[in-house]
Fold each of these.
Amino acid sequence: MGCGDCQLSYSQLSSTAPGPPPTVHLLQSPSNDRLAVAPRLGYACYLVSLFQRLLQFVLTLGPWGLPFLGLMDSSSIPFPPELLLIPLTMQNPRAVLGYSLLATAGSAGGSLILFGLARRLGGPWVEKKMSRRKFKRLHGWLEAHPVLAVLVPAAMPPPIPTKLFVLAAGAFEMSWGHFLLAMSMGRFLRFFVEAVLIARFGPQALLYMRHHVWVPALLFALALLYVGWRTHLNRVVMAEG
C-alpha cells in the first residue's frame, strides 16, 4: 500500500459517509472504531513519505550516498547500500572497486556505533535482544574464532542477521581493532562481489543470491579453506627450509 493509498484511507476513515471503505476491513480495531484507526494510518503514511524523501535525497548524492546508506543500514535504519550500488554499477561498471570501498566505509562506521553501544551497555542488555540459547552460541563462536565470527556474517548478503553478531562482539568486549578489521574485510567482500555480479549479470544476480544464501556462504567457506590450506603449506615449507 503506497502513501497515496494511505492518504485516501485516512480521509475515508475520517468521513461520516455510511458504509466502511475497502481498507477498513483489514485495519479496523476490534471495536470497529474507525476514528481510532485513522491516526495510525496517518502516522504510517508520514513515515513512508519520510523514508521516500530521504531515499530520493540520497540518490541525488551519487557515489557519496553509498557511505550514507551504509551508515544508516548498519546502525539503525534498514536502507541497504545496494539501493544505490545497483544503478551506479550499471552506469559505470569500471568503478566497482571505488563503489565497494565507499559502501564499506559507511557500513563499517555504522557497525562501530552499534558495537560501541553494546560494549557500553554490556551483556545483559544484548541478551534481551535474542534468545538465551542464541546468546550462548554466539559467545562460543566469538571465543573460539573472534575475527571469523564477525567477518563471515558481514560478508553474507541479507537476510543474514549481522547486527546480532555485532552486538555480541561488543557485549563480549572484542577489541576495537579486531572488530573493525573483521567488519571491514567482510563488508568489502560482500559489496565487491555484489558489484562484480551486477556488472556482469545485472541486478537479477542479487535476487538469486538473496533466495539462495547458501551459494555465497558455500563459496566463501571454500575460499577460507583454500586460504587456510595455502597458509599451512607455506608454514610447512618454511619449517622444512
Amino acid sequence: MLWIVTGVTLGFLGLVLYLPWLAHLFRFGVLPLPELLAALALGLVGLAWFEAIKFGRRLYRQGSPRSARVAFRLRRAIAAPAPHRPG
C-alpha cells in the first residue's frame, strides 16, 4: 500500500512540475535536469546513510566479534566531532 501511495505522489509531482497548465496553477517553475539529478542524488545519499546505520545496528545486535568491531567503527565515525581546522 505504501508503494502505491508513494508512486501516486511521485506521479502527481511529475505532472505538476512538467505539465505547463498544472505548473502555472500551482505557480511552479520547470525544474532543470541538473537540479532534478542533484535532488535525486542527495536523496539516495540520505537513504544510503540510514541503511548503513541500520546495517551497523543489526551487526552489533548479533554479537559476533567482527560485527562488534564494525559497529564500533560506525558508531565512532558517526559520533566523532569534526576536527577543528583553523582557517
Amino acid sequence: MTPTSATSAAKQSTSSIETKVPGRSGDPGAALKGVLLALMGTALFTIMFALPKFAGPASSGTDVPGLQIAFIRYFGGFLAVLPLAVTTHRKGVSLISPQPQWHLFRASLGIASVVCGVYAATHMPLANATAIGLTNGVFAIILAFIFFGERIAGLAWIASLLCLAGALVVARPAADLVAAFQSNPAAFVALIGAITMAGEMAVLTHVSRREPVARVLLYVNALASLALAIPAFLLWEPLDDRTLIFICFMGPVAILGQICNIWSVRYATISLITPFKYSSMVFATFIDVLFFDLLPDGITVTGCLLVAFGGLWLARLQRRRND
C-alpha cells in the first residue's frame, strides 16, 4: 500500500467513524450508556492506580519511581492493545491517523499530568495534592463548553459541584491548602496537572469521535512509551517478581478502562460524565475496606454519600431532559 493510498484509507475510515457516532442522535438511552461506561472506566482506573499499592516497594526497599511505573503502565498497555490493532487492520481499517498531531498532543498532556501528579504528591501533603487534582473535572467541563459547545444547566452545575464536594470531603485537604499556593510551588504544579488531565479528556473526545478505538489506543500508548523509556531507564529500580507482576497488570487494566472512556464520550457529553469520575473516591474506599482492612470513618462515608447523591441527581436531571 502506498503512502497516498494509506492516507486515503485512513481518511475514509475516519469519516465513517465520524458520521456514525453511536448514541448521539435520537437514542434516549445513550446518556445512561455513557454514564455506565464512565463508571466502569473509573472503577478500572481506580484498580489500576491501586495495583502499585498491592505490589509494595522495589527490591531495594525504596518506593518504585513514578516514571518507572508510568513507563511500565504505558508499555504494558501498548502490548495489550496490539492484538486489537492487528484485528482492526485485518478488517481493512487503517491504523495510520490523518491527524497524528492530536495523538501526540494527547500523549504529551497525559505524560505531563502524570509527572505533575507524582511531583505534587511527593512535595506536599497527599490530601492537598489530591484535592487540587480533583479540580480537573471543573476544567474539563469548561473546556467542553469552549471547544464542543456543551452547556450545563443550573441544577446540573449544583449536582456536579456536589460530587466535587463529596470527593473533597473524602480527600480532606489541610486547612492551609490556600496558603500552600503562596508558599509551595508544588501546589501550582498540582494545578497544572489537573488542567493537563482535563485537556487530555478534551483531546480524547475529539479523536475518539472521529477514529477507531484501536488506533486511538495504539497511538497514545506507543508515544507515551517512547517518551518515558529513557527517564524510566535512568531511574530504574530492580523489582521482585511479585511487584513486577502487579505493575505489569496496570497496562491491560488501563486499556480496558480507556476503552470504556472512549465509548462513554461517544455516547454522552463530557459535562454529563465528568462528575461521575469522582466516584473514584468511592471505589478507592471500597478497595481499602476489602483488601487493606482500612475501615472508613464518618467523614469518608459522608463524602461517598455526597458523591453518590450528586451522581444520582445528575442522572435524574438528564433523564428528565431526555423525556
